[in-house]
Amino acid sequence: MTNIPETGRSSRVTIRLVAIQILVLSLLLTLGGRLWYLQVRNGDEYQKEAKGNHVQQVVEPATRGSILDARGVPIADNETRLVVSASRTELMKQDDDGKAVLERLAKVLGMSPKTVREKVRLCDAKTPQPCWNGSPYQPIPVTDDAKPQQALQIRERSEDFPGITAEPEAVRRYPAPYGANTSQALGYLSPVTDEEIEKAKDTDSPFLASDEIGRNGLERSYDSQLRGSSGVTRYEVDNLGRVMGEAESDKARPGSNLVTSMDARVQAVAEKQLDKAMKDARKEFDKNTGRNYKADAGAVVVMENKTGRVVSMASNPEYDPNAWVGGISGKEYAKLTGKKSNYPLLNRAIQGLSAPGSVFKVISTTAAVKAGYPFNGRYDCSPSYKVGGQVFKNFESEGHGSINLGRALEVSCDTVFYDLAYKQWKKDGGNLPKKGAKDWFYRTAHDFGLGKKTGIDIPNEVEGRVPDRKWKKNYWEANKDAWCKQADNAKGRPSYAERIAKENCVSGMKMRAGDSVNYSIGQGDTLVTPIQMATIYGALGNGGTLYDPTLGKAVVSPDGDSVKEIKPHSHGKLPLGKKTLAQMDKALQGVATHGTAAWRFGEAGWPQDKIKMRAKTGTAEVAGKQTTSWLATYTDDFTVVMTISQGGTGSGASGPAVRKIYDAMYGVTKDGDIDKKKALLPKPETKLPKIDKDGTIVAQRDKQAEKPGDKPADASKSPSASPSGSPSASPPGESPRTRREAEAVRNEAEQQQRRRDGAQQVRDVRALAGGERP
Amino acid sequence: MSTRTFALGGYGPRRRSAWDRLTARDSIVWRLDWVIMLSGIALAVIGSLLVYSATRNRTELNQGDPRYFLVRHVISLGIGIALMIGTVWLGHRRLRSAVPVLYGITVLLAVCVLTPLGATINGSRAWLNLGGGFTVQPAEFIKITVILGMAMLLAAKVDAGDQEHPDHRTVLHALGLAALPIVVILAMPDLGSVMVLVIIVLAVLLASGASNRWVIGLCLAGAGGAVLVWALGLLDEYQINRFAAFANPALDPAGVGYNTNQARIAIGSGGLTGKGLFEGTQTTGQFVPEQQTDFVFTVAGEELGFVGGGLILVLLAVLIWRACRIARESTELYSTIIAAGVIAWFAFQAFENIGMTLGIMPVAGLPLPFVSYGGTSMFAVWIAVGLLQSIRTQRPIGV
Q1: Rounded to whole angstroms, how far apart are CA atoms A99 and B38?
Q2: Is B353 a residue whose pLDDT tops 50?
Q3: Is the pTM of this model over 0.80?
Q4: In this entry, which stretches build a coiled coil (chain B) (predicted)?
Q5: Number of domains in chain A
Q6: For A698, which DSSP code?
């Protein structure tokens, strides 16, 4: 203790001590630097990882809204199925990891315990199917086909079934009321793709792998409103995946219901009549081709004149929209998209293109008036017309002498329009077009809305084409190389095709006299869709306003509180004065009473004095194919346009069907009387269907369609249209248990009743639609 | 010490009470290094909060009492401080004569661990069951007795003024003294403690002024030993895995790399200011294993952020800085060596412990001095602080 050296330590030790000190502190400095790097520089990244670590999401699907017709009858709704699911989180809390519970469940469901266990186990590399592929926090469905009795057993003895739920779940369904498929207009749903799931992952409404979204038709265009938003419950979990608590959660919000302007009954008639017309056409012999008409496709549109609202839209060939429900099989998909079935997925009302034929003449008439030819002037309707060595003939080479434009419409005289178009063509400079050529015939077509979309509220509408100078030039530029090459390659005597190619190569950019003459009667390169023609004839019927056709009428929130009406929207006015419009209207009445369509209307018992019918027939020639039948008609309130590809003449092929549709709508009987009771839709449906306080949209059923002795013909509710899918409240005084039971029973009864109703109404409508009158 | 002479006189100053003696200007209390004291206590207090945060939800460990670990941690701290006071009271010089006995006892205890008396935790048999739920980890005390023993041997002749530096014979003796417990601990196997002991031996040799050849030789021997251990397969699989996971952290994040990966997520997600005490999701979700002991720093990182983690580092740095000053200012080699050993111990153990949570060191089972839960470690650390204080208080005044 006393032996303290006076000199202290050696310098070697001192130096080493300093070295140790520096070393030690630099170690701590290293730690500080690394800590800064992890926490401050890369903190965000790790925060994300930590979040992914401890938060697990359970997505609860939202019930998709229904699509209803104008009277509240569901045309797309949800079927309720009883789904029994098991929650692994709850099962794992049991002492035996839920083994006993699953065994009891198997007994109740009448399944083998092994099957149930397999369904509930999680998939991994070693586990063969069946196993659960989804999130372990998501309730795992054991069956979606439980009977109410089984569900009740599970619910009543909930203490025996911890973690097991039996809940009704919604599955999309297209009930086809009255037998109206409405397939193309409704569209379809198909499962989300991985990309879509990834994209929506961090949004407010993530997808489940089992989710479906609208791919076509109304299902697509109103998808965001119909879909609602799925609920997300976020659970905080620990390292073993045990749930520690619930983080912020969003409840599922069911989708809104869409009320359309369609009338399922009229739709049924339209579909039926279109199909019948096509079948009948196939029995007709075509003199030109020497075989029966093929009638390979057709479409019909029924529209309100004053709003542009579509009452009915049918496209043939059609398909059963329920084919998509629950996933479509490869075979069925091939069938729907194949050439053999002629692409039934196409909605020919908005996607079918063909030359308009004589229904185009309302445009030519307007163009003539615009160009300064008086409506009531005299024009020569000769049997044929010669332009530059080429002879253009009237239909069946008929002549009518000197007539005015109205009469030219009535008898559909081609030569009158040939002459007018040829004169205009010459005025505009002929083969050497003047600068600032008026091009009245083409300009008027554009003014009528041709060559562009009508703006209908379903996707994939096509534009059609007005073959004006601009189009000719573009078309020539796109094809001249091919044409010229073909012409150059010609050896010896050029074939017909080669001569055409040569001509096209040299002067294909030019608007020739023949083009213009042909164009004036709706033949040649002009392409239109039925919906475009419906828009035009509707405008003629409403005083000249071109409305965007709409199927959607109102979006009703699931609780019924918010009703957003989809207002009619116009995209232009017809370039017609009031006087000309009235003259044209009168001429089109003439078509129905003593013109080309008279044998289907005026001369076939149509009550023209009560319901003024206007019509225009069209028979468009298509190179290498049979003629396209067109019939465009309108009354004061409605427009009906029908077309049948390779179907024959306008009035011949489409006439009876259009007449039958009007008969059904107005209740016109065989002998030309009007039976108001039988009329399906004598006036446009202006009101929205009744919406109950709980948001249920009440379907209006026909009184007369009900047979005596059936259920009283009151307004029966459609449970599927209500947001929760729950039926109306039951009378008070019942105990919850029996009420549930009663509900289940009533559900079943109601469904059966609806099926019966549906079938009965189908029969009634069929009877109305003709064919098999009782 | 010589007040007795005046006590007989009637007017002389009264015999000073114990309190007076403690508070007098020349009292030992004034001479204590309070910076070290307060840094150590601050670390221990932060440690108790972290331990509480890490264990209050772990019902499977805390036997239903959220404060189970907190209470034990605070009691350990109390005992530790008492042990420090006892050490100061005894003084490191007076302990010199007891070193052989203490060394013998600790080595014996370590050997006992290898007998059925030992308890295996996390794959290493490093604990001694004392009964009544108490366990002790002799390796912690061996760190102290190895430092004391080597210091005694190496400084004996130098402090006596016979030599300027310890001769080869002495160094050899000292190394032999260290080798015996190292072999015993290697057999447990408690690799972390072996690593700390090797570093301590290195620092002790450096501070003793032993020839450079010894220092370099020892470094080479250490490296060779490591290769030998690897080659002979003396390591268990879990230890090899730890190194593999260190070399490649992305390796099997659910298995081998799990600890390091989750530890890094916990710390990284803390950001600048942390998620708040008791608010850490990684901590409450128990994603990081051994969070109250070896991985306690992850709680600080996650819940207190860079600010809290940095504070721990600063407190450790201040403490070690002051210890370095004590080492440099002590005038006898015996004290210098002890201080250097303690510095190496604290510094390396802290570096290894925090470094493994930050992914810059391989995982080894070592507690964070002052902060981690664990009685033996707490006791040993505070005894070591007692040694530092003793060196400071007993150095000749004026030097």
Answers
A1: 57
A2: yes
A3: no
A4: none
A5: 3
A6: B
